[in-house]
Amino acid sequence: MSQQYVLRYFNIQGLCEALRLLLTASGTNWTEETPEWPREKSDQPLGHLPVLVESSKGGKDDVVLSETLVIERYIARKYGLLPTDILAAARQEQLRDQLHDVWSTHMEFMHSTGERSTELVTKFEQDATRLVSVHVAALRRNGNNGHYFGEALSYVDIAAYAFFKFFSDAGPKSLKAKVGLLNYTRIPEVSKLMATVEASSSLAPYFTAEKENGARLATRFK
Ligand SMILES: N[C@@H](CCC(=O)N[C@@H](CS)C(=O)NCC(=O)O)C(=O)O
């Protein structure tokens, strides 16, 4: 019998869109729940979300994991979306972590004021520019076939899809013109990746649900 997973998170894209895509691509059974906040904060192992619960017989040996990138890699490894070769996996993880850093700068900017805010605009511009050149080079090295590595959907394809999608519909408090640096419609290699991910049969349930229910908010800080 396949594993059952419950993803606890808020009803936003936030940190979780890559994880939702990974869970869908894994073909496993998973559902989501939205804890009442902050009432249920103290019930979470590290006091924050996301949390992934993997259930087993009777609930006695449930696995409860925190930390977005840890959960992503647990699922990606378990369901063959990361290579077993540790160097090949590290090459995917470094690209994924670069995406996470730029996303985190954007989130910090949204809560910042004054001098720190100005610093973060410069940092975002520099880091996003470097990110685009690194990711375009990686996609080209793989023959611009819509995947970062090989011929099949893998972890970094999914993480990059979620990242570029986020920046294509981030809210009005975002970095405005700077976010345009990440507008994938202006980057042919990334546009190809986006179309390839959207055409993946293992992700069809995700895109069907999105069509029926609409995309989640990119941010709750509008
Ligand atoms: N390092 C953690 C950060 C998690 C985090 O900051 N989660 C936010 C939501 S995006 C949260 O739970 N905020 C509510 C709170 O901390 O009370 C991760 O990557 O999972």
From TrEMBL:
SUPFAM superfamilies: GST C-terminal domain-like, Thioredoxin-like. Residues 85-221 form the GST C-terminal domain. Residues 3-83 form the GST N-terminal domain. Pfam families: GST_C_3, GST_N. Transmembrane segments: none annotated. GO terms for molecular function: glutathione transferase activity. CDD domains: GST_N_Sigma_like. One of its GO terms (biological process) is glutathione metabolic process. This is Glutathione S-transferase.
